[in-house]
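Weekly sync, protein design subgroup
Attendees: M.S., D.O., the rotation student, P.L. (late)

Item 1: inverse folding check
M.S. brought a backbone from last month's batch and wanted to see whether the design step gives back something sensible before we order anything. D.O. pointed out we never logged the input encoding, so this time it goes straight into the notes. Structure tokens as presented (192 positions):
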């Protein structure tokens, strides 16, 4: 008795062949992944650093260190780990054949006087800034239901107080006070 292959049997055999090769390549890829463990410490005190960001460079794979500065991440031998934390310099380490990578982060070199803050239409060094700075964009003002720009600022910036002294229809000219000042900053008719 002879078995004749029909189109459906040929298609089925091709499907199984493709499935076999895909599963073999997946197993090879899964074998190349390895778990890297380690700790992250401070350079001066050698204390464990919690919540340090540990990521694989060029991917979204990553996590953070626990309260004892320990981390664990799945990578390949070709990957580069990036360690970053506020106040410390970012450090990159090649994985290679290692399974344990302990890192000591160096304190950042940014000083308070070197930080620049945008103030209004200019800039100022943070070390010489003696007041609070707040800003909002046009989208926040546009999303307000108020018909007047002065009334739109109420509640959007800390320390801004707007007062309407009259309830007269069509007369919408609020007085704008900053930090409960006695003298108004702006007393003008503000219309859209």
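Designed sequence read out in the meeting:
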């Amino acid at each position: 008795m002879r078995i004749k292959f029909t189109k459906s049997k040929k298609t089925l055999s091709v499907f199984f062949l493709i499935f076999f090769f895909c599963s073999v390549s997946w197993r090879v890829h899964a074998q190349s992944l390895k778990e890297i463990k380690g700790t992250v410490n401070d350079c001066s005190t050698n204390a464990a650093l919690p919540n340090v960001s540990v990521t694989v460079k060029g991917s979204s794979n990553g996590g953070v260190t626990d309260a004892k500065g320990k981390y664990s991440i799945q990578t390949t031998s070709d990957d580069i780990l990036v360690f970053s934390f506020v106040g410390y310099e970012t450090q990159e380490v090649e994985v290679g054949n290692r399974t344990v990578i302990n890192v000591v982060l160096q304190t950042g070199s940014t000083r308070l006087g070197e930080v620049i803050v945008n103030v209004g239409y200019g800039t100022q060094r943070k070390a010489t800034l003696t007041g609070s700075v707040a800003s909002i964009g046009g989208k926040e003002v546009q999303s307000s239901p108020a018909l007047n720009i002065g009334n739109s600022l109420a509640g959007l910036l800390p320390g801004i107080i707007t007062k309407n002294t009259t309830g007269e229809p069509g007369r919408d000219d609020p007085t704008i006070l900053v930090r409960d000042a006695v003298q108004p900053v702006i007393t003008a008719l503000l219309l859209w």
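Discussion: The helical segments are 7-32, 138-142, 149-153. The first helix runs from residue 7 to 32.
Action: P.L. to compare against the previous round before Friday.
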